[in-house]
Amino acid sequence: MSASRTERLLNLLIALLNTKYGLRRSELREKVYHDTTSSDVAFGRMFERDKGELRQFGFDVETVTDRGWGSDDPATTRYRIGKESNRLPDVSLTPEECTVLILAAQLWEHAALGSAAVEAVRKLQAAGGLTDAELPTGVQPRIRPAGQAFEDLVAAMHAQHPVSFRYLAGSTGREEDRLVEPWGLGSRFGQWYLVGNDRARGDKRFFRLSRLTSAVTVLDKEGFTPPAGFNVRAELAGLPELPVQTAVVDVDRGRLLGLRKRAVPAPDAAQQPGGTRQPEMRGPGAGRDRLAVPFRDAETLGEELASYGPRVAVVSPPELASVVRRRLTAAAAFAAAPVPDVAFPDAGRAGRTRKGTSEDQLKRMLQLVPFLVHNQGLHISEVATRFGITRKALEDDLRILICSGLPEGYPDDLLDIQWDDDHVFITQALDLTRPVRFTVDEACALLTGLETLNGLPELAKGGALESVTLKLMAAAGEAGLKAAALSGPEVAPDNAATLETARTAIRSGAQLRMLYFSPQRDAVSERDVDPLRLYSLDNTWYLEAYCHSAVGLRNFRLDRIEALAPNGRPSAGTAKPAESFPVKLFTPNDDDTLVVVELAPRGTGLADDYYAERTAPLPGGGMLAEIRFGSTDWLPMLVAQHGGMVRILQPAPLADASRAWIAAGLTQYGDSTAGPID
Asked: What sign does the dihedral 449-454-458-461 (CA atoms) show?
């Protein structure tokens, strides 16, 4: 969509905002659209589309009819926009409330809700109600949404469109087509769930997103109405936790230390109730140990065991063996599929990045005007940085703005912005001095984030979290009520003692000695580290530190730290935390290996998870991604774990090693070409 459309929408908005009695279609057609050539029908369609666009931005376009005339006569109907109905109410926040709100906005690591949170914060900054705040040490939690399915379901839920997908039913172990009205999304027991009406069954159902076996299709021609007062957190609170079961597995001797820490020795499968043993498997006497591993969910444990490939074989229960075999079979099938041409754009990321539209530009300009009013004289480069665009894109926005104003207005009736000396000033804002009210996505991103922070006791103290939530609820209005359809995971750490040791060392500048288990190396190592920062992904917490053994920045999972204590020396003080936030889990080095992978449509989120340097879309919704890895020995495990969502294309030896790893894992379950175990 061209800049002319952006300019037309902006001029239409200004005209409707600045009329007390309303403007007729004929007046708008002549003065705003300058349209004398198209038919009345064609103009009417264009005007209706533009009104719909303005409503999507949060502006209520009112219709006013002259008394004594028919209400359906377009010649006498007038249009206007109330100056208060669409504006974000004033929100005044204390420094403590600003800190909490920024933490809540940063929760969403990426994806659509991350962008919505950024947009909401910009609106508050534009209105002058939000100041910069320093984040507290050790309290930087984040939420990692569950891939592209999460994105599509949130969009469908807010637009009230049903969705369809293929689903692996836990009760039968079979894939089924489902048609669902998405009422809410939330996290429970470390898993994301969709709650909605299953149209085929005519009843409410819970769907775990990790069991979706296809991409989500949004039926945007259909609609539904969710139940009044629906609250997904309350719904998930009644979901019972799965009972503890015991898996019997044969593990290569001396391998898989992480799995062994959770296991106990197990007797022969013949002594297990309902135990089965496949004759193709190597027994414990062939360099293996038999272990019993407690678990609640076969899918979760099966994902882990599949990654171990030939180093572990499931003895019982049969449904767990089925999960592992299904993942390995899917990974083998994807690895054997025809290889696409590997070609990336010249620079930067492509893939799922959506091309900017006139709606994006208009949304940005409606934030830009009030921001400039409240921040007079900022350098143009700083303004561009605040809005995440280039200087050229900002100047394009400003040029459209200075050409916009009242219909057939004089110079004083146009937006007046100057930036001749690279410092931007605005002297005429034409009633655009306050940002538009929150969208549903923006309200959900902030309010769900604030609710999630309740799990951190240090933030719940003092009342700032509760007070900022009440202020945001009042400002969001009706959009805020829909936030009850989204619920984040628990973010409180399980290992509070380790976290507190790290936080104390960060404050005091003490160096720490650490015993750390690395699953990629399958080994425990002793390290001296200078702790720098703590943060989390969902409820998994990380310590960013300078590692003297690796001679560089590293990120350590707290649940893999076996011992942590001061070593009596101060931190060197030379290393600084990574500038970017969210923190990258992987620190790039000159000797890293560039790996090209193909991602299936359900696995495109892995490009973000592993910070792909270049991406390119593929027909059918898949993606090519070029990712930098410091160590590649563990990548066959990654491919096996994700069961058909990712495969390695380059370098060729690594692709061959991945296929061999998967094939060796499959041989333990019989014919590698057979279907899943039932």
From this structure: positive
